Amino acid sequence: MRERWGWTGGWRGLLVLAGLLLLWEALPRLGWLDPVLLPPFSRVVVRLGRLLFEGSLLTHAVASVGRVLLGYLLALALALPLGFYLGLNERAEPFSRLTVQLLRPLAPPAWIPLAVLWFGIGNVPAVFIIFIGTVLTMLLGTIGAVQGVERRLVQAALTLGASRLRAVWSVVLPATLPELLTLLRMGMGLAWMCLVAAEMVAVSQGLGYLILQARNTFSTDVVLAGMLSIGLLGLAFDAALRQLQRSLLHWQGGRKVHGLLGVVSSE
Asked: How far is the C-alpha of 78 from the C-alpha of 213, rounded, in Å?
């Protein structure tokens, strides 16, 4: 870990962040930026602390986390198995490619009218928008990862007597695991990016709702406090997925080398 990332690189990143925050603090106070449009960083932190103390921020955060996780997990539940099926089935994948590429450029806000018409108002359309904004990218990524596996490895496993399911489990899955874990992190980032658009759909709680309400009252410090909260939550979830990635890939190297041998020895 230390060799890969390096303590020096970590400190440099912190120094860059500290410099940006110092600049954010200084420019409004020096009058170079309008403090109404961009309050100093310290004022945003104070507002964030007040919202936390009042309990309203925690309520909004819990609502947003629930929507993000549900939309993200639904996207995973569809994208991973369907991506494996289409990636392994050379005949089926071309039929789905045009549909996926047609829908992918549509940004999540474009789905808001349909989400309201289909599901009404509340949590369901919000979760749908997070789902639709995440699933297509994860589906394409899964298909690409599976198609990148060398076919001769799968054929060798089948020749040695493994069933198709066992070949997928012992050969394809280990070979695609590094890309899939990166895709999980990317999907989580996309889910958080869709949050504000999702919470435009007549919900009464959530960080996106908080930001939109603060915009209507021109409370820029609350807007920035909500944005900062989303960023910190997204960072926390990414850190958890990154730790999962490191734990799994700690043994993944050996599994990739011996995955095919495991098929033989277990038969």
From this structure: 33
How far apart, in Å, are the Cα atoms of 40 and each of 25, 44, 53, 176, 216?
Answer: 4, 7, 20, 45, 20
Contact 165, 102 (CB under 8 A): no
**Sites in the chain below the pLDDT cut of 70:** 1-10, 250-267
Residues 87, 147 contacting (CB under 8 angstroms)? yes
DSSP characters for 145-199?
HHHTS-HHHHHHHHHTT--HHHHIIIIIHHHHHHHHHHHHHHHHHHHHHTHHHHT
DSSP class of 107: -
Q: Rounded to whole angstroms, how far apart are CA atoms 123 and 133?
A: 15
**How does pLDDT run across 88-112, given as a tens digit for each residue?**
887 777 778 788 888 888 888 889 8
Give the Cα separation of 158 and 174 in Å (integer).
16
Q: Tell which phi-psi region holds residue 124, choosing left (phi > 0), alpha (psi between -120 and 50) or beta.
A: alpha
Domain spans of the chain, in order of start: 38-266
- pTM, whole model, 2 decimals? 0.84
38-266, what's its fold?
MetI-like fold (1.10.3720)
